[in-house]
Amino acid sequence: MIEVEVKVRADHSKIRPVLMEMGASKIGVEEQSDVYFAAPYRDFAKTDEALRIRSLGGHSVLTYKGPKLDKVSKTRVEIETPVDGTATAKIFHSLGFLEAGAVRKKRDIFRAGEIIVCLDAVEGLGEFLEVELDVEDKKDLESSRAELFKFLSQFGLSEKDSIRTSYLEMVLEKRN
Ligand code: ATP
Ligand code: CA
Ligand code: CA
């Protein structure tokens, strides 16, 4: 699966009324607690990959993300599977993987047609908006990305507002 994703900084109180007006439906609220891992043999910050255990509502999901595929969005291969978070972390630690950092956020999730809209309140960082389309085929990347930017234009947002820095990088930058 390829996630086609655009992230922007956004005041949620300005976004919510527009979402309501366009008839977007709320599909969930998640308290996400993410731990990112660093491999002993490869610097994921340099290779632009990610290895993460996400804990939410009593269960955990393991995620691999590949390098970003374009210059304007956060489009990339994403592989996810449910796991036992505690056991998986123990396995990683045993193999010499270190924790690179943690990100905690509250995510309000909406659906507007095919587009998944996330209102993220990230601990220590503030409010963000992420919009996402998942595609199977690389040939659909460009049209999906265009669709996301067209969607964002309804909020007065454009390509120049797109942030490609990850929450983890922002958390780490703030810490240093
Ligand atoms: P998702 O969209 O899957 O819910 P998210 O929105 O919580 O994730 P993002 O900021 O979109 O978080 O993506 C996580 C990011 O963390 C990835 O872009 C990845 O490249 C980055 N990352 C992972 N490991 C490292 C590392 N060691 N150093 C710097 N960045 C990393
Ligand atoms: Ca995503
Ligand atoms: Ca994201």
Automatic annotation (TrEMBL):
Pfam family membership, one: CYTH
Gene3D superfamilies (alphabetical): Hypothetical Protein Pfu-838710-001
GO terms assigned for molecular function: adenylate cyclase activity
Record-listed E.C. numbers: 4.6.1.1
Alphabetical list of InterPro entries matching this protein: Adenylyl_cyclase_CyaB, CYTH-like_dom_sf, CYTH_domain
Domain CYTH residue range list: 1-173
CDD domains the record matches: CYTH-like_AC_IV-like
Alphabetically ordered keywords of this record: Lyase
Superkingdom per UniProt: Archaea
Record protein name field: Adenylate cyclase
Species for this entry: Methanosarcina mazei WWM610
Lineage: Archaea, Methanobacteriati, Methanobacteriota, Stenosarchaea group, Methanomicrobia
